Amino acid sequence: RNAPAGTAGKEPFLRELRRIKAYLASSRPTAVNLFWALDRMEKRAETEEQVSGPAMSGVLLREADAIKRDEAAVSRQIGEQALTLLQDGWGILTHCNAGAAAMPPYGTALAPLHLGAARGMHFKVYAGETRPLLQGARLTAWELQHSGIDVTLICDSAASIVMKQGRIQAVLVGCDRVAANGDTANKIGTSGAAILAKHYGIPFYVCSPLSTLDLDCPDGSGIVIEERPAEEITERWYRKPMAPAGIKVYNPAFDVTGAELITAIITEKGIARPPFQWSLKALF
């Protein structure tokens, strides 16, 4: 929008920006890096001397482009860090989508797989379908197959058997928020995979940009878990409803994996290991 020049024109622009920011922030209460990006945009506007609408819009567009460039560098750095923990030929289990759709160009948890493949490494990836929205089936499986990486789609409930059969040597997942003690929020079903990995003695790695760390959140109990519509479970993807009419449905979009289940948290600045309350702070 066009805002009048001069000091008087800045406040109306900022009010509108903050209104839009609050609206966007309300879409994903669990994911902290959305708030990080919105805060960065707001601070850029607050410090900019150009206050006319067209000029401010250009400033914010350039800031958004800068965020995109920074995120691309972070993606590669996370991939390089994670790759030091993996061996050629390993079987990798992943859950949900932590690829290019989440953070171009390589993602977080998928970044080492892309970088390794480019260097001639051959991973065997097992992608959990990720009910109920099937991000693993619709996004991760497509992305890896399109990139020529050996990927096998499995039901989420098949994670235990592929681990027991010795097909999995490491679990790689992304995350939406990391608490100060290392508790991690990610797509629903992640904590179950972590419990299974612990049982079978398989390392469980969380790939997280520093923008996802929330050191103001002491532990996972303070992370707000988004709840989604019942229809995602009872009707979506089916030609007709597959559950009894009126059935009660609980559909949390995320769960929290306890720090005690996590082998390491991989960031662009290094690899944090337990105790996370100290190792995470040391990255800043």
The CATH superfamily of the largest domain is known as: Translation initiation factor eif-2b, domain 2
Tally of strands: 11
The best one-word shape is: globular
CATH architecture of the largest domain: 3-Layer(aba) Sandwich
Strand order of the largest sheet: 3-2-1-4-7-10-11
Q: How can the largest sheet be summarized? A: 7 strands, mixed
Number of helices: 9
Which structural class do you get from the secondary structure elements? alpha/beta
CATH topology of the largest domain: Rossmann fold
- Using only C-alpha atoms, the radius of gyration works out to 21 Å
Order of helices and strands: HHHEHEHEHEEEHEEHEEEH
Unreliable residue runs:
1-8
Termini, distance in Å?
Answer: 37 Å
